[in-house]
Each structure stands twice: as structure tokens, then as C-alpha cells.
Write a structure and sequence with these properties.
Length: about 280
Amino acid sequence: MFEHVIRNPFDMKPVFNTCEKPVFNANETDLEIQSQRKLELDNLNETDLEIQSQRKLELDNLGSNIWFETDVAVEEKLSEKTAAKLSLFNQPDDYQLFTECNDVKDLGLAIEDDVVIMHNGKLEACFVAFPSSWNAGEKVGKSLVELHEPIADNEALLRASDGIMRAMTSGQSYHRYTWGISSLNGYSNHPLYEKPEFDSLDNLTFRVEHERTMTVTEGTTAVFLIHVDTYPLKEVLKTDFGLIKGAIDSMTDSVLEYKNLFKVKELMNEYLLST
């Protein structure tokens, strides 16, 4: 089920593939979406509302720990330009924004994805409601190299950082998947939330992040869009136990510590011994 997400053996190399430019439309009606996609979207619509509500709740709870916007971002209107590139305008002949987009907070509350805007190689604005153990408020003005410094086994990632930035602003969009396992059962894995202790795999959550890039202004500005999905780990293990165990078994100790997977590895081995 998750072969496209989990690499086995595991490594921290940044593997991005080309993809279509991400597009959103905040003004679609249910019928319009249904006509375009030819899907029954009742559940999806409920999920959309749930996710958007959760993003607002994270903002209320954590405030500036999930978003910021620098003076440069304000002067350059980076959030407005990003919203326009994401097709979050009304009809083409009506150049009014989908809603107020005074800052990246407005943008981050309008869509399901977390938003990370890079400009001239630095992080100038972001809204990250559902992070994987990092605090957006501590990343103001950092380069990709600086952002990747805390990551375990980061040598390949650091070497690739400048190239990733060039690719992001080239006009081509790219995407990749990352995954993790958490004892928190919500979308957010913010470091200000204490992770519950656990002694079983049953109540853990399997997290998948789908990262996509889009050029906002060629040569200077690009956005990371990060969509988070969560699944009960016990359900994922029914189809992907071997894949996940193989990936975890191939991780270095530094990666196991960084991803908080030592205990998960121990419990998976105990499960095998008991069957």
C-alpha cells in the first residue's frame, strides 16, 4: 500500500521527482468539484472541513510557533504572489483574491497544505500547522542548508540543498514523500506537544507527508507545500509490516533517535517473536 512512500533500505537522501504544478481553487462548489473529478466527495468534504478547523485550532493554540512572515515577505507580497500562482483567485476576469490574503497566515488557513515560502535562498514566510517535530517560529530567514542542519545523517541532504533551491525556482514542480510514526494521534507533531509514552503498537499513528514544490517567481521565489495524512499504525501494519520493519531495521542509530523509532523497533521485534 505504501511502497511509493517507504524506501527499503532506508536512507535520508532527498529523492524528488517531477510533478504537475499544484493548483487549488478555494471557490469551487461541491457540484463543480464532483463534475470535474467524477467522485463521490461527501467524506472528502467532511475531511476538508475537519482539517481546516484543526489548522485554525493549531493557530489558536501555538500562535507564532507555527507561522511568521518577514519584512521582506511583506514588501515583496510573497504570500499574495503565491496565492495567485496556486490559482486561488476568483474568475480570471475578476482579480480579487479568494478571500483576504494579507499574510501567509491567511493563505495557510485557506488550504489544507502547510506553506513554506523561500525567497532568494531564505525562508521568508511559512505557515506550518502540522509539522514533524519542528517549530516554524525558530526558522526565520534560514537557508535550506541551515534548515537541514538538525536532521540526522544529513550529509547528502546538505550537499543537495543548493541544487534543490535552484530546481524549485526553475519553473518545474517536484514532489516527494516522507513518513514517520508517532504516539500523538493528531495531524500535528509539534515539539511543544509532549509525546505520550507507549508500550504497544496499537495506538500509534503512521504519518505521511507529501511535499510538493512550485516556482512562484523564476530564479528567486518558490514554495514548499506539505500535505499531511495520518493512519492508525495497526491498520497499516496489516499490509506493510515487512516493508516498515525492513526500513526501520536498515536505519542508523542516529536516524532511529531522530525519528523516535527505537521503541517502535523493539516492539516490532517483540511482535515477531510472539507470533
